[in-house]
TrEMBL record:
Listed InterPro entries: NAD(P)-bd_dom_sf (IPR036291), Sacchrp_dh_NADP-bd (IPR005097)
Upper lineage: Bacteria, Bacillati, Bacillota, Clostridia, Peptostreptococcales
Residue ranges annotated for the Saccharopine dehydrogenase NADP binding domain, each copy included: 6-133
Superkingdom in the source lineage: Bacteria
Protein name stated in the entry: Saccharopine dehydrogenase NADP-binding domain-containing protein
Organism: Hominibacterium faecale
Length: 408
């Protein structure tokens, strides 16, 4: 197995977490850390053994190409608007490609943009004998691998729920632990659900379901949220999800509680309006007042030392279907460290632990030559052997699955 050279493009909360793990991986020879923020690059590279840094303007494909010379894999941890440039750069330098979430950079319609990734970029990567895998953070990513794992317990699947509760809340104002612009974009959109075999739009914060799992002190209400998973599952239902006809992403937590009243008041609108002679989009005003996700060890420690309101959460897959002619529920819980434990283990937040390191686990599949697919796949299209390898790696980070099959 040849040692790999990897370009980590974007050194925010998630890219930096992945880079730190790659620095410790014996299969990695060199890491190129790249971002427009040279100070952030330098701060990260100074902590790593195998890394060198460079400044990149990701709005220029040529700038990315220059940084990507000789790399085996480009790990794209940039804002979604840059995805087209990164995909095109990967093709030009004949590198493998990985990102964290779907984008509208290829088409203004999100579903069509994903379709273009599969149908247009897939054949291009196949033609150069390379693999592109998209949606590889925690959700999408880790949760998709866990959903694939649930399929091994079913003969046929009818309905999939991906359920996430962001239960980490600081005493200070910190509604999001990942990119606020991405979070607020997701909060401001109608959601997608796969219902009766069709992908449909659903109202944001609507179609509530209530759950109280054993480790919850109270019942939690989960609502619709604009996310990648139902879209990918709709494309891959027959081949990878036992013919599923329904798939939902349900969300709860401090970010939802913060965003819902803003959405209802029209304050997440992207449409400009004139207020006291000033033309402005309400979304931009809200975004300007939301703090960035903490990514440096000292600021994370400061938040913990100030105190937490709660340090909990859940990531659950409920897959309903049939096994041996009986109606069953496959209920899978993802166990992972909370904020305090993530900091104690790795000096990072729980979000970075799951998303940045969840992404790293897909990178580790590349590093260990576990991908025999060429073309473009999403994280829900792993083989069961790849799923097993993924969770074998995850267990080393104390990320595990607890699965129960219940007759209904």
């Amino acid at each position: 197995m040849a040692l790999k050279k990897i370009l980590v493009l974007g050194v925010g909360a998630q890219g930096s977490a992945a880079a730190r793990r790659l620095d410790e991986d014996p299969g990695v020879a060199e890491i190129v850390c790249a971002d427009y923020d040279k100070k952030a690059v330098d701060n990260l590279v100074n902590d790593l053994k195998k890394a060198k840094g460079t400044q990149v303007d990701a709005h220029s494909k040529d700038s990315i190409v220059a940084a990507a010379q000789g790399v085996d894999l480009i790990l794209n941890a940039l804002p979604l608007e840059c995805t087209k440039n990164v995909l095109d750069a990967a093709l030009e330098v004949k590198a493998n490609y990985q990102d964290y979430a779907a984008t509208t950079a290829l088409h203004e319609d999100w579903v069509e943009s994903i379709r273009i990734q599969y149908n247009e970029y897939g054949p291009k990567f196949e033609a150069i004998g390379r693999t592109a895998i998209v949606g590889t953070g925690s959700a999408p990513g880790l949760i998709c691998a866990a959903t694939r794992d649930a399929m091994r317990y079913l003969d046929t699947c009818d309905t999939i729920y991906n359920i996430v509760w962001e239960g980490v809340e600081a005493k200070r104002f910190q509604p999001f632990w990942w990119s606020p612009v991405t979070a607020l974009h997701d909060m401001s959109e109608e959601a997608y659900a796969f219902i009766d075999g069709k992908l449909v739009r659903t109202p944001a914060f609507d179609l509530p379901i209530k759950r109280q799992y054993d480790y919850m002190d109270e019942e939690i209400t989960f609502v619709e949220h604009c996310h990648d998973e139902p879209i990918h599952y709709s494309f891959n239902a027959e081949k990878f999800f036992k013919g599923a006809k329904n798939a939902y992403f349900k969300y709860a937590g401090a970010g939802v509680d913060f965003s819902k009243p803003l959405y209802r008041a029209g304050l997440l609108s992207h449409n400009t309006e004139t207020i006291k002679g000033v033309e402005i989009a309400p979304f931009d005003v809200v975004l300007a007042h939301v703090p960035p996700a903490p990514k440096f060890k000292e600021e994370i420690k400061e938040i913990i030392d100030e105190g937490l309101v709660s340090d909990s959460g859940c990531m659950v897959i409920e897959a309903y279907g049939k096994k041996d002619g009986k109606d069953v529920l496959v209920e899978t819980h993802v166990n992972a460290p909370g904020l305090v434990e993530s900091y104690e283990k790795s000096g990072i937040t729980a979000e970075m632990y799951l998303t940045g390191q969840g992404g790293y686990l897909f990178t580790k599949l590349f590093v260990n030559d576990k991908f025999d697919q060429t073309g473009l796949i999403s994280s829900d299209m792993l083989t069961f052997e790849q799923v097993d390898a993924y969770f074998e790696y995850a267990a080393e980070l104390d990320i595990t699955l607890d699965t129960k099959v219940k007759e209904l």
